[in-house]
């Protein structure tokens, strides 16, 4: 797949995400006839600016997290590269179903910056363990508060099932991650077991790719060495285990810092909703009992709960589910004319703002690379024409730059 096709694919997914977002907003306006003029009558831009800063800090502190972990294995990792990788991750997470493109996109930026892929994978898995730990602990806290009657939300039975599923999923993921890191034969066994069915799919894909002239050479080379991919993965398991042993020896402080950064930037992101309430002039005290603690703590708890649902949503950017879920869970604060303005600002600040920054990096990288190729091609053609002119020979019509170069040579 060339970069032009990749750019068109990304543009298509972004268009679908924005279209679904616009449809939900239209439904809200059409059904409720919300008065946007009345809702924005008492807007306070300063508080919205604070919310925007808190939203952007996720990319900065997330970059600091991968930077602190990555430098344990590769001290030359630049902070700028790490922060860029985090914003690219946020962009690709927003435009791919189930955030499937998040980790591979960040890994691509870090590898482009000079890190070995196996080191990136080790740092990425440790980063994932920080996120899993945050979600697991926060789910347990919310579950305990709800069982004790100190947290009351809409759709109680469904929320209980969501919490149980969250605890089970993230708990299992954390146990599996620790077991795979501590006992390499377990991970190698999984690789060998999956290599049989996945190997058949890979062979079928390579047979199809062999029919494409541009891909034929690589496909034939891969078909000539059928076990090479599995062998590389098994070797990576050993390197992955060695990387974890390095963290056990001299990466404890880096991991502790990554955990603190994880809790910090997630809580800051969830607090964006509180400052949107202030920015729209909405009372921060809920109309009904929600939870114990000051209003900002109550909002953070509700946003944490909403985030569980967003992570389980297969649509790009959790479009549809995010808007409807926010309307339901934030109803003690947001209702009437404020529903649509709140949802718009919440989605813009918590999703599209960081996606825009990450998208600038993505399209700048892809676009610059394509442009450089075209510039090099043009310069080569000019050099070939100049050499042909000096040789006293006019280029033949239809002759490309490569043929001209060979002719004068």
TrEMBL record:
Listed transmembrane segments: 6-26, 47-67, 125-145, 161-183, 254-277, 289-312, 324-343, 349-367
What the entry lists under InterPro entries is as follows: L-PG_synthase/AglD
Provide the membrane topology annotation: Multi-pass membrane protein
A matching Pfam family: LPG_synthase_TM
Q: Where in the cell is it found?
A: Cell membrane
Principal localisation: membrane
Keyword terms of this UniProt record: Cell membrane, Membrane, Transmembrane, Transmembrane helix
* Key word Repeat present: no
Q: Where is this region: Disordered?
A: 386-409
Q: What is this protein called?
A: Lysylphosphatidylglycerol synthase transmembrane domain-containing protein
Please report the organism this UniProt entry assigns to the protein.
Sorangium atrum
